[in-house]
Amino acid sequence: MRLNYIQSQKIEKDICLVYKQLSEYSALMGDLNYHDVFTLCYWEYLKAQELEADDQNFIFEGCLIIILCMIWDAIDGSGDYIFSHLKSIKNSLLSSDFRDVDLQKLVGIALSGILFLENQKSDNQEFVEGSEWAYDTYVNGYFLSSLQDG
């Protein structure tokens, strides 16, 4: 998938907003507005091409964080948005081909959450622990890198 400038800006805007909203909590959470605010099909952007490497990684990481939040939305009972897209999200995750180890780890965390939602896993401990790592690495990491760069 090729992204034009406007599309990449919309995605980056959503990622920055989700990081800002998540920074008000100490962990990933699912209570985001997927019908009016976070409306893009983020899983479709896991195949974005022809972007600068930093921009591409930021989009991949952010889209995966938003997918983790969608999974939390179902686990914590605050919503069910993900269920209408579960098959597409799972297929996008399974077909992702990231060379970056941390991106592979994020995909694995998301897949463990999806398997739990599909009742193919009896507990969600792997997803919970992975979500803690993802929050520290990406949400906290985003703000720490901004401080260091600024």
Strand fraction equals: under 5%
Question: What structural class do the secondary elements suggest?
Answer: mainly alpha
Number of domains: 1
Radius of gyration: 14 Å
Task: Assign a percent range to the helix content.
Answer: 55-70%
Overall pLDDT metric: 93
Described by the principal axes of the CA atoms, the overall outline is: globular
C-alpha end-to-end distance: 32 Å
Total of DSSP H or I helical runs spanning 4+ residues: 5
What keywords describe this structure?
mainly alpha, 5 helices, globular
Textual characterization of the structure:
The protein has 150 residues and is an all-alpha fold. The chain has one domain. It is built from five helices and no strands. The longest helix is centred in the C-terminal third of the chain and has 25 residues, at 125-149. The chain starts with a helix and ends with a helix. The model has no long low-confidence stretch (mean pLDDT 93).
